[in-house]
Amino acid sequence: MDPLRIFLSYSGENEFEASLLQECLETRLGPGNVIVWTFKRDQSRDEANVSHSLKETVRASVAVIFLLSPFTIDAGAAQWMELAYADAFDLPTFILLHHVTYDELMRVERGVPPFVRQSQCTPAVDWRSIESGLRTQLAKGASA
Question: The pTM is what?
Answer without folding.
Answer: 0.92
